[in-house]
Amino acid sequence: GGRKTTEAWGWKEDNGGGSGCWFIHHHRPAGVYLNMSDTMDQRLKLAQELLRKGQVGLMLSEQENLPRLPINDLESAIKDFLRASEPLLSPEQFAQTKAQAEEFLKEDGPRLHELLVGYDKEDGRNSYLEDVWEDAYLTQRSSIAINTNPFFTLEDDPTPARTSQIARATTLVWSSLLFCQSVRAGKVEPDVQRTTPLCMCQYPKLFGTTRIPLPRKDKTVFCSDSTHMVVMSRGQVYWFDVFDASMEMSLTRETLAETLREIREDSGTMEPEERMHSAVGVLTSDDRESWAHWRKELESDADNAESLRIIDTSLFVLCLDDTTPPSPADMAKVALHGTSVVDLTISSAGVQRGTCINRWYDKSLQMIVCQNGAAGVNFEHSVIDGHTVLRFASDVFTETILRFAETIRSNFARRQTAGMQSCQAVRGAAVVAVEFARINWKLGEDVVAAMLIAESNLSDRIPQVDLQVLEFAAFGKNWIVDNKLSPDALVQIAFQVAYYRVYRACVCTYETIMTKKFFHGRTEAGFIVTHESKELCEGFNAANSVLTLQELLKAALDAHVGVVRLASQGRGIRTMHALKCMAQQQQPSAEADSVPALFKDEGWKAMSHTTLSTSNCGNPALRMFGFGPVCADGFGVGYIIKDDNMQFCVTTYNRQTARFIHSLEDTLITFQRVLMGTHFGANSASAAPSSQGNVSPLAKSLAISTLSSPNASLRPPFLSGQMNRVGSVLINGAQASSPRV
Question: Is residue 662 helix, strand or coil?
Answer without folding.
Answer: helix
